[in-house]
Amino acid sequence: MWINSFDDSYSLTGSLVIGEFLDPKTSSSCTLYHPSTPKYVKDITVLLIRFDEALTNYGCSSYADVIQRNEWLQHNFTTQTTSETTNETNDSLSNLPMVIIFTSMNDGDPGIREKYYGNVDILSKSESKLALIRVSDAKEISYLKPKTSFINFTSDSGPWINLLKSKDWKIWSILFGIFYSSMIILAFSSFILAINQYKFDLTNLRLWLFIAILSYSFILLVIFEYDPWSIRYNYLSELNYEIIVMTAYYILCLCYAIFLFPWIKATRNLTEVVNYNIGFVRKLSRIFQCGTGLAILIKTTSIIFYLLQFSPNGIKISLMILRVIFTILESLFCLIIICTFGTFGVIIFFARIHEQKTRRRRSREHQPVSRKSVRKEIFLSGILTIIIIISLIFVTLQEVIMIYLPITIESFWIIRITNDVSNIFSGLVLIIGLYSNTIGKYSHMMYSGSSDENITTSTFSGDSSNNPNVITSINDDIITTTNVRNKRTTIEILFGRNSLGL
């Protein structure tokens, strides 16, 4: 694959030389032997530079560093006035290789995520054409070099350009472009509908979550169509690409964390309605609310450590350490959020079981009991909890696995498939939790709101069954009739009555 040229039909035949560097202890670092040296043959056609060795042993920091420190490789290499120097320079230029091949340092298919640090414009000053090759292929050439020095060089556009031109990628980009666009339309229409019916309330988390889903879906759609994996390096640098993508990922994870606050509140209100471990759940809710705040801080820190590995200035921390820290922080965030959803999901489940037992007991005692099905509410509350947990695990797992995969075409498809599917799935789960008829029917429970609204149960007396505003509050041995607000669905309990834009 070319670095400074894009001639896909370029081909030549000639001699191959493997470049050798001067000892950095006795000369300047990253300095190649001059082409006029007896170490090289006359008329070099292809010069292979083992950049993997130059990076570790000879003080080179980038491909541009090699070109910059060896001026005889540049266009602006000028002759001197003395005849002796002029003759030497002419000899070196006549022996200048037509093609210089660097070994790729992305541990995969060459062309992206390369060591382009430093002054990238220097690459365009090279007199020779610059190309990339796999390290494994360069090693094979090194083994063959003592036996042969005559090669046939043929260029191509590289695997990544071929990928973007492939039929598979075009189909995938169209398909998931439609999915991302549908997510944007759904989130935007839900937000507008809620605004039209109930106006914009800054304290309404439901509206903010719609905005967050809309934002991260829009970012992912744009970057998906513009530059799917920082392949088009001239369009977007690796660091800028990662900042944009991780911003969308951060917003998505914040949606899960923010969703926990109304989730915890809904659980607490349900236990108050059915009179199930009220004191314990209140204490537990305070603890997990603090834990949710800690999870947001952990997520912010993990994103920072992730982006440090793409810093062009070179952080004095090894890449593996940064990846391990990122993995640990991501795991902690996921664990806290999952435990919170799971804990309060289990509480909802047992609170519903408690409500069902209470109904059966009162039915045997011939007390008035609502006819609504608790089993359906138990089932749907469990499904909601499970799909939220699964979607979060899916999102986190694919993000962690991604950083350990080699940069190959196969890895691209693994990352692309898991990333796009998890993003769409997570968005749908969040929208289901915020705006869905199924979830609206998920639970029709009474809402006590706060301690000054002491409505503790949800059964209708025979005389009041025709009046939706009259609800009978039944304790073990007390039956009273009170005028209160209508029954609230789960979405209303999660986000407040005014936020329900259904």
Automatic annotation (TrEMBL):
Q: Which domain of life is it from?
A: Eukaryota
Q: Quick one: signal sequence residues?
A: none
User: Which residue ranges run through the membrane?
Assistant: 171-195, 207-224, 244-266, 287-308, 320-353, 378-407, 413-436
Q: Does the keyword Membrane apply?
A: yes
**Keywords, in A-Z order:** Membrane, Transmembrane, Transmembrane helix
The identity of this protein, by name, is: Lung seven transmembrane receptor-domain-containing protein
